[in-house]
Specification:
Pfam families: Peripla_BP_2 (PF01497). This protein is an alpha/beta fold and about 350 residues long. About 35% of the residues lie in helices and about 20% in strands. The strands form 3 sheets. Strands 8, 9, 10, 11, 12 and 13 form a 6-stranded mixed β-sheet that branches. The protein has a 4-stranded parallel β-sheet with strand order 5-4-6-7.
Length: about 350
Amino acid sequence: MIPTSSPSASANRSRRRKPPAVLASVAAFATVPLLLSACGTGVTNGPGGAEAADGSGETVTITNCGRELTFATTPSSIVGMMPSQTELLIRLGAVDSLVGQAQTDVSPLPDDIADQAADIPVLSTDTPPAREDLLAAAPDLVVSPTEYEFTAEQGFASIEQLKQNDAQAYVATGGCLDRRSTAEVTDVLTDIDNLGAILRAPDVAEELSRDAEARLSDVETAISDVPRRTVAQVFVDGNSLQAIGAGVEADIIATAGGENVFDPDAPEFADFFAAEITPEEIISRDPEAIVFSVSGPESEQHTRDYLERTFPDVAAVKEDRLIAVSKSDLFPGTLGNIDAVELIAEELYPDAF
């Protein structure tokens, strides 16, 4: 899958992340009135009234990927399908409700919360969990970065199969199939609000959103007056070269102040956010920076070697502006998207920070 981390990317991730001061449990907010959001979240009186399991007496309804999800009570058996989603759930105070975490080898959890996940059962390491393994965890909520994790043809539990087993699936807003190519960094704010409502933790969600918005605002302010540098964003697999021209990946570049040399409206990105290209297409555009995703130190070194060998006369290589970003920070619905914005902006415009 296009779009964990190199040592440099991990170090930046730990240094940059500014978690809210309060990471209280969901239960602490069970009696707080839910906030209405403008992103598909609704609150109605539930049939259980005061007898609802979470004590709120309210039903939360979420529109997600065109599906309506209804929660009469707070989910108590949750699975995070990627470390990025597990992190978000922990930061929203749901650690005691997590009955499984998946794809754990994709990226490490940030240092400040890694210990909290130590006792959460691991359902898979480098791929989504098999159907049987996910259903055996008996979740009532599964949170995923994309709809791919529910592909029945791959042996994964489908959304319908989860529903038949009394579980609902929440997919990151930017990972919905019809939005994958138009996703934005700020989609994670929608996910924070939605999950905060589902978990009956609006105060924690509000604080997390405030912190994320402040970090993005700091970047915007810092680069407001700098001349924009041109950027090519690529994915290298062996000697295969792909350009990233759309999706949250491209919006990360734009938010960091880069001018993408690949046009998201170009025909090659009409159906998918990435397209295979020839080296000549990079050479002809001569970007001032090249951003590439990495899954570890070996992949970072391999990609750097490939870029330096293939594009010795391109400005990005001559000026040593090759920017490695942890692959996990490019997945939809992760706070890592903001880490990536900060990292890229600082690499593009070091004098602005």
